[in-house]
Design brief:
The complex is a heterodimer of chains A (334) and B (263). By secondary structure, chain A is α/β, with parallel strands linked by helices. Chain A folds into 2 domains: 250 residues, Rossmann fold; 58 residues, Alpha-Beta Plaits, CATH 3.30.70. Chain A has 13 helices and 14 strands. In chain A, a hairpin with a 2-residue loop joins β9 and β10. In chain A, α2 crosses α4 and α10 packs across α13. The mean pLDDT of chain B is 91. Chain B has 263 residues and is mainly alpha-helical. In chain B, α5 packs across α6 and α9 packs across α10. Helices cover 73% and strands 3% of the residues of chain B. The longest helix of chain B has 32 residues. In chain B, strands 1-2 form a two-stranded antiparallel sheet. Chain B has one domain. The radius of gyration of chain B is 19 Å and the shape is globular. At the A-B interface, α1, α4 and α5 of A face α1 and α4 of B. The structure holds adenosine-5'-triphosphate and magnesium ion. The site of adenosine-5'-triphosphate has 12 residues of chain A, from β2 and α3.
Chain lengths: 334, 263
């Protein structure tokens, strides 16, 4: 907890001053200027270590994706990033401000979509946005303008006087997104923005996010949807058991950990399995199938498929899902 | 992990209070009807039904009609109920089911401000309900003015006291059904044994001692004196007790809520 004195002194003017100072600073060409800078971040719940000593950064205008199986520590990491849960160890700077002392100033510049939809069911769609605007000291009149603009942005202006409980899941998620944008954030944090949505709603959200990205907003997002990660993110972090396994551009991760082409053989014969083993290829030997990952120019597949396959072979492009499963394993998480 | 001091407090708790006001105004009619009609119900049942049996009650050397005796107690009970129920059931629903607090904690609000806003809101509900009820009771000539006006700030103070203790339960009880427990152990005994419907001097001595510890006892004494236009410095003891009670339970509410919500 920051000291009492600091909190009383940090008025709105000072928060604004902080941000103006930082913006001026950021406008200067400085390659070391990070939106988020996390060093040795650790989160412990009692004895259990949910996030272990992770370090990463987020550049201005970048969309960074946080991937990992259930319980990997994504939400725990994100919650520290907007000052919701106190860090157990490490240092964290957001907009160049230290989280431990400047959490309030930081929150003025962040928009958050939490993992659960927590719209206010006592209020209408419009009131949800207006009430939220007040938490950021936005005056009533400009709050109304912003809310109207955002409702147009998410194509829900004709539902603005409806109670949020009457909306569908996809509509609610869009309202949550609009609510996260009410303070014109510099950084948008999205915890599984499209989980549970149908393909239509998902694509709607993606398009909105792409538009925001093109306007230069910095985004940190977690997802279990690999298409989403590949489509939206410039860079990815894959984590498991509270540790970062790898980070890099989606295409680069695919090349490195899953190659270029993949051949999947269903119910392969034992001879085929040993043949693949003897060739020293990158492959996964599963119960009912074998998956072989080929690098660029590997002609080996043509040979192999001709020799051993009839209709039990599939040849396809390597995907991010291959990378994810190879790195985090195929066992179910509790 | 949870450090007692310092508290993260600023004027921003007003934002939380405003949020509750927006919701309150959506259903203001319901909110107004209860304190408007409730005293009529009680006065009809006890005042008309029971006063024939009870006759008059002597209070500090005065003979009071039973109606005049219980009317101030109704005010005190309203103060207790409004704040306590707002900061137990209603706050619990916002915290646990609606995740309203979680959403607020992604904005420049601290948890201490959220909880303070909730408690001040509970006290505000006590104040509004008391004002309406006071107006109704005044129509029966049961309130002496200007003394009676002091009941309004008293309602706010009492609201903070009962809201804070309610919030401590919200911060500690695992499920909403368990509020039955503090209601049975804390609210109901107070409702009955705080000099509300009969004077406590008739009770066994140990019960009288216990009753002195009840904040409602002091609140009833205060509202009764003010309604009757009796004013004296001895009333400050009651006010002091309510202050002290708030001073203990308000920080305790902040601490229990931190323990519950900040991980
Ligand atoms: N408040 C808490 N108390 C104790 N353990 C917790 C708490 N919150 C999270 N954990 C544990 O920390 C680990 C990481 O949880 P976290 O919510 O960060 O995972 P996640 O990567 O977001 O998973 P998911 O994809 O399911 O959302 C889990 O094992 C979880 O049980
Ligand atoms: Mg999560």
């Amino acid at each position: 907890m920051p000291p009492l004195v600091h909190d009383i002194i940090l008025t709105r003017q000072q928060c604004a001053a902080w941000i103006i100072f930082w913006r001026k600073h950021a406008a200067m060409p400085n390659p070391a200027r990070y939106i988020v800078e996390a060093r040795n971040l650790t989160k412990q719940f009692g004895e259990f270590v949910a996030v272990r000593n992770i370090s990463f950064h987020l550049l201005r205008g970048e969309c960074l994706g946080l991937l990992g199986p259930n319980g990997a520590g994504k939400t725990s990491t994100i919650r520290m990033l907007y000052g919701f849960s106190p860090m157990t160890g490490g240092t964290l700077r957001v907009f160049g401000i230290d989280m431990r002392t400047g959490w309030r100033a930081i929150r003025f510049g962040i928009g958050v979509c939490q993992q659960e939809n927590n719209l206010d069911p006592d209020l209408t769609v419009l009131q949800n946005l207006e009430v939220f605007a007040r938490y950021f000291d936005i005056p009533t009149k400009s709050a109304r303008e912003k809310a109207d603009r955002l409702l147009r942005f998410i194509a829900l202006e004709n539902r603005k006087n409806d109670k949020v409980t009457t909306l569908s899941g996809g509509m609610m998620r869009r309202v949550v997104l609009a609510r996260a944008l009410i303070n014109d954030p510099e950084l948008l944090i999205l915890d599984e923005p499209t989980t549970g949505l149908d393909p239509q709603s998902r694509h709607q959200v993606w398009e909105r996010l792409e538009e925001l990205r093109s306007r230069g907003l910095s985004i940190l997002l977690t997802t279990h949807n690999m298409d989403e990660a590949e489509r939206l993110c410039d860079r990815l972090i894959i984590m498991d058991h509270g540790r970062i396994l790898v980070q890099g551009k989606p295409s680069q991760l695919i090349r490195e950990y899953a190659g270029r082409d993949v051949v999947e053989v269903v119910e392969p014969s034992p001879e085929f399995r040993s043949h693949v083993k003897s060739l020293n290829l990158m492959h996964d030997n599963l119960d009912h199938r074998i998956i072989i990952y080929g690098q660029e120019g590997d002609r080996i597949f043509e040979k192999m498929t001709g020799e051993y396959c009839r209709d039990n072979c599939i040849r396809r492009m390597a995907t991010l899902e291959d990378v994810f499963l190879r790195l985090t394993g195929r066992e179910l998480r509790e | 992990m949870t450090k007692v001091l310092p508290f993260n407090l600023s004027w921003r708790f007003v934002r939380v209070w405003q949020r509750n006001l927006v919701v309150y105004r959506r259903i203001w009619l319901v909110n107004f009807f209860v304190p408007l009609l409730e005293p009529l119900l009680y006065l009809a049942a006890f005042g008309i039904g029971l006063s024939a049996l009870v006759g008059t009650i002597s209070f500090e050397g005065r003979e009071l009609s039973y109606t005049a005796f219980i009317a101030p107690a109704l005010l005190a009970i309203t103060i207790m109920y409004n704040a306590f129920f707002e900061n137990t059931y209603a706050s619990f629903v916002r915290m646990y089911y609606q995740k309203t607090f979680d959403a607020m904690l992604a904005t420049p609000l601290s948890l201490d401000e959220v909880i303070t806003g909730e408690i001040i809101w509970g006290a505000t509900k006590s104040l509004i309900a008391t004002a309406i009820m006071l107006a109704v009771i005044s129509l029966f000539g049961l309130v002496r003015y200007p003394h009676g006006l002091l009941i309004l700030p008293l309602a706010f103070l009492g609201g903070i006291a009962f809201g804070s203790v309610g919030m401590v339960f919200t911060g500690t009880l695992p499920s909403i059904d368990m509020f039955n427990l503090p209601i049975f152990l804390f609210i109901s005994p107070m409702f009955l044994f705080s000099g509300t419907f009969f004077p406590i001097d008739g009770l066994p001595v140990w019960v009288q001692h216990l009753a002195i510890a009840f904040p409602l006892t002091h609140l009833v004494t205060l509202t009764r004196h003010l309604c009757l236009g009796m004013f004296g410095t001895h009333l400050l003891w009651g006010v002091g007790y309510l202050f002290l009670f708030s001073l203990v339970f308000y920080p305790l509410a902040l601490l229990t809520m931190r323990k519950r919500l900040i991980h």
